[in-house]
Amino acid sequence: MKNIVIITPVYNDWESFTKLINEIDKVISGFKDISFSLIAVNDGSKEKVPSLSLPSHLKMIEILNMRINQGHAICIANGIKYALKNYQFDNLILMDADGEDRPEEISDLINKARELQNVSVVAKRVKRSEGPIFTFFYFLHKLLTFIFTGKLMNFGHYSLITKNDSETIIKEPTIIYCFASTLKNKITNLGNINCIRGKRYFGPSKMSLFKLIIHSFSIIAVFKMNVFIRSALFLVLLSYLQPNIGMISPILQMMIVMFNIFIYIISTKSNEKILKKMDLELEDTEKVTH
What we know:
10 helices, 2 domains, 47% helix, elongated, Spore Coat Polysaccharide Biosynthesis Protein SpsA, Chain A, 290 residues, alpha/beta, 8-stranded mixed β-sheet
């Protein structure tokens, strides 16, 4: 029998988490040859963890209580690191707990992984549920990422990864600020499924516009050498074009320089010492076994 561990970060939204585990239970009930466990990384929630009952098709739920709020990326990294140390598993499934990663697509991830055999699978979003303003800025983010890195980033955390790939990416310091880009950067062979971004189970998103911008830069910062090389080429090209485009050239050059400074600053969060010591922020764990 295969073993899959589902990892999800939670920050205060325990109402959504309770709904999530019941929705997951419905989906995994059809996989009789797989044993499922779930790790919830409590990202320093101010709300008390509620009393939980174990759904019938989950072997166990374990809650990792972090001392302070550190964000999704470090929570995911901590969850992967903890699973590697404490669980026997064949695959990990990483997903958000708020409903935007739809549990019904767990089936698609598993079936695609069976088809490809020992290949990690990401959930590629082909349809989103946000309004036109967010959709526009998301398109702009993808365009900037492609122009400056040469990478098409069309997936987030939602994925099924093999044990071998999880052992590879957990060694990379960039995982503490962006899981998806680290996976894309280090694992060349990735399968994918099409998915639809779901609607939040309860309430609006707790992520501010500022944090979304930082997240966008974090995705790009993993490929910082690509950014620096391409930016140098753009600066040279703009200098060459200055006689034809006038003041537009120095303005664009200044914007590129500022962009590179931001990318460099964010990339400094990539620190091997932080990676090695991040699990020291784990305060305690709670297990739900019945």
